[in-house]
Amino acid sequence: MFPVVAFLTLACLVGFSSQGPGVLDEITMLEASNSSLLRYPTDFSRDIVPKGIHSHNDYWRDVPLLTALSLGVASVEADVWLVNETLHVGHEMAALTTERTLDSLYIQPLLSILAGQNPKTLFSVNQTSINGVFDTSPTTPLQLLVDMKTDGASTLPFVLSALQPLRELGYLTTCASNGVCTPGPLLAVGTGNTPLEGIQALSPRDLFFDASLTALNSTFDITLSPLASTDYQVAVGWNGIGNISEAQLSAVQRLVGDAHGLGIRARFWDTPGWPIHARNNVWKTLTENGADWLNADELNAAAAMF
Ligand SMILES: *[C@@H]1O[C@H](CO)[C@@H](O)[C@H](O)[C@H]1NC(C)=O
Ligand SMILES: *[C@@H]1O[C@H](CO)[C@@H](O)[C@H](O)[C@H]1NC(C)=O
Ligand SMILES: *[C@@H]1O[C@H](CO)[C@@H](O)[C@H](O)[C@H]1NC(C)=O
Ligand SMILES: *[C@@H]1O[C@H](CO)[C@@H](O)[C@H](O)[C@H]1NC(C)=O
Ligand SMILES: *[C@@H]1O[C@H](CO)[C@@H](O)[C@H](O)[C@H]1NC(C)=O
Fold it and tell me: How far apart are the first and last CA of the chain?
């Protein structure tokens, strides 16, 4: 749409001649010119529609974070290890390096993406809302799941301070002690060894708790746990081949229903990855029955389900 408008503008300026190039030639020339007429300041993720996919072990990808965003994946996971007062990112201690930290792989790139999505221009001076990472849906937050691998009580303060640059710019979804929440472009959720009491004590709260989907009770609501997760193999178990049993199907429906009754989104991890048709059958059954996040290692395959 926009290139056509730009073309018409240009055509008016230069005087449109029937002897000149056709409309498609003009479009090609304009595109090759890299004209600022064709660029929005905020087109980082143009045409990408966000999807309910969780990038499992996102930091393992050749390009963490950006690969997920390029496919519209709206939730990413980083495993963090507190070593020498620094949060390193990796699957196990032996895989850690000094360069790969929560700050370098996630916090700094997110600061730069969100700065680009929220340019300071003559036109944005009165804007009060903050755009998220997805141009097509600026109010869709990106969920950042921080999986604490080291002791929760000692790791939590470091995660909270790692989030400080995002917090300062108003990028974090925040809930006040009166339960009123202010949505932000990012939703930070702790999992793994994240201590429930430590998250409950936060006021205001801008790091949330990944609850157990099989152990929800009235303690949990979206101001504490916007997300609840469980091990699919244990909670459901169907391998995706043949028909799901009634008991397995009702387990999915009951767990999703429990979460949704509290306004919480449901995620099943450890779903089968192989064979492919079985993996897809499980994903399809989960989404058809209301699961909010497809937990995916193969992001392209998960994106193709939408
Ligand atoms: C297009 O223009 C932008 C902004 O002026 C510039 O950053 C970019 O390098 C240019 N790209 C090409 C291929 O010339
Ligand atoms: C941790 O700090 C100590 C003391 O400064 C240093 O000797 C050690 O190499 C550091 N280890 C890592 C993994 O950074
Ligand atoms: C911003 O608000 C001021 C004061 O109301 C107004 O004069 C100005 O035109 C607004 N700017 C834009 C870009 O809307
Ligand atoms: C709800 O579950 C949490 C976590 O397992 C537990 O600490 C809490 O005591 C439970 N609350 C009720 C009301 O059962
Ligand atoms: C699987 O379910 C379908 C549809 O309900 C049914 O037609 C089919 O007979 C079932 N297959 C088996 C092996 O139970």
Answer: 24
Atom of ligand 4 lying closest to residue 217 CA: 1
Ligand 4 midpoint to CA 47 (Å): 43
Q: Whose CA is nearest to atom 4 of ligand 4?
A: 215
For residues 60 and 75, what is the distance between their CA atoms, to the nearest angstrom?
15
Question: What's the CA-to-centroid distance between 84 and ligand 2, angstroms?
Answer: 6
Q: Map residue 282 onto helix, strand or coil.
A: helix
Which helix (H) or strand (E) segment is 87 a member of?
Answer: strand 86-89
**Residue 103 per-residue DSSP state:** I
The predicted structure's pLDDT at residue 20: 73
CB-ligand 4 contact for 215 (6 Å cutoff): yes
Confidence of residue 1 (pLDDT cuts 50, 70, 90): very low
Ligand 2: atom nearest CA of 88 is 13
pTM of the model: 0.86
Question: Residue 152: what are its φ and ψ, rounded to 5°?
Answer: -60, -45
Q: CA-CA distance, 20 to 27, in Å (whole number)?
A: 13
Q: Which atom, in ligand 5's list, is nearest to the CA of 243?
A: 1
Question: Is the CB–ligand 3 distance for residue 125 below 6 Å?
Answer: yes
Read off the pLDDT of residues 238-263 as tens digits, 9 standing for 90 and up: 999 999 999 999 999 999 999 999 99
Q: Using one digit for the tens of pLDDT, what is the confidence trace for 168-201?
A: 999 999 999 999 999 999 999 999 999 999 999 9
Residue nearest to atom 9 of ligand 5 (CA): 243
Q: CATH class for domain 44-303?
A: alpha beta
